[in-house]
Amino acid sequence: KIDFVIITSFACITASFAMAYYYGQQQQQPDPQQQYLWAIFQKVDKDRSGSISSVELQQALSNGTWTPFNPETVRVMMSIFDRDRSGAINFQEFGALWKYVTDWQTTFKSYDRDNSGSIDRNELKTALTNFGYRLSDQLYGLLVAKFDRSGRGCVSFDDFIQCCVVLQTMTSTFQQYDVNRSGWIQLSYEQFLTLVFNLKP
User: Fold this and answer.
1) CA distance linking residue 10 with residue 168, whole number of Å
2) Radius of gyration of the chain measured on its C-alpha atoms
3) What pLDDT digit, counting tens, does each position of 82-134 carry?
4) Cα 36 to chain center, whole Å?
5) From CA 19, how far away is CA 163, in angstroms rounded?
6) pTM for the complete prediction?
7) Cα–Cα distance between 185 and 177 in angstroms, integer?
8) Among 96, 101, 132, 182, which is disulfide-ready with 7 (CB 3.0 to 4.6 Å)?
9) Could you count the other beta carbons within 10 Å of the beta carbon of residue 84?
10) Distance CA 6, CA 32 (A)
11) Burial class of residue 6, CB neighbours in 10 A (0-12, 13-18, 19+)
């Protein structure tokens, strides 16, 4: 049995926010903000192809640590916002992605209480608790160890996004088996393998 006690008020944040940003952008009329985004888009689109590749997006994003933006986080965001599955982000998709990133940045800064540019275990615990998760201190330590690419015992902005997306994905998958919302599931070995191999944040 797997024992997770999770309050899932935050369980759909990444998917629902992403969809809201994407479709919301479709309905908006051009405005100064769009012109501002177009200027950014043109700077990021280094090869002038009219779309942004994952490499160009990674180079354009900053995690505040002077290190390359987490490529796995870039892959996840590309999978969310590349709606036409072209392998690149067009301007409309970029506008939705930009809003997604800036909202995550606002969230990250609100929990980075010491303004260090990274989140330690206690700050991560505060953030995820406010998102609705109820996890043990041991698991918070495991999350920091998993998503701390710098080896400094803390999580940078880009890794924070990945952590939250992965946790939400795993929670949603768990809930498919936890039909009674008891926080417990019982799986066969094959069900477990199916669960793991189908995880695609």
Assistant:
1) 8
2) 18
3) 988 899 999 999 989 989 999 999 999 999 999 999 999 999 999 999 999 99
4) 24
5) 19
6) 0.75
7) 6
8) 132
9) 11
10) 42
11) buried
From residue 187, how far is each of 22, 26, 172, 174 by CA, in Å? 36, 42, 16, 11
Dihedral angle sign, alpha carbons of residues 46, 52, 56, 59? positive
Q: How far is CA 75 from each of CA 27, 43, 79, 146, 156, rounded to the nearest angstrom?
A: 26, 20, 6, 18, 17
Place of tokens 């505040």: 64
Q: Any idea which residue has 């809201």 for tokens?
A: 20
Ordered alpha helix ranges (H), 70-136 = 71-81, 91-111, 121-131
The residue type found at 151 is G
Alpha-carbon distances, residue 140 vs 42, 93, 137, 163, 165 (angstroms): 40, 33, 5, 11, 15
- Do you know the residue count of the chain? 201
Q: In this predicted model, what pLDDT tens digit does every residue of 20-31 receive, in sequence order?
A: 555 555 555 557
Q: Give CA–CA dist 95/125, Å, rounded.
A: 31
Q: How many helices (H) and strands (E) does the chain have?
A: 9, 4
User: How many angstroms separate the CA atoms of 89 and 200, rounded?
Assistant: 19
- Cα gap 93→190, rounded to integer Å: 38
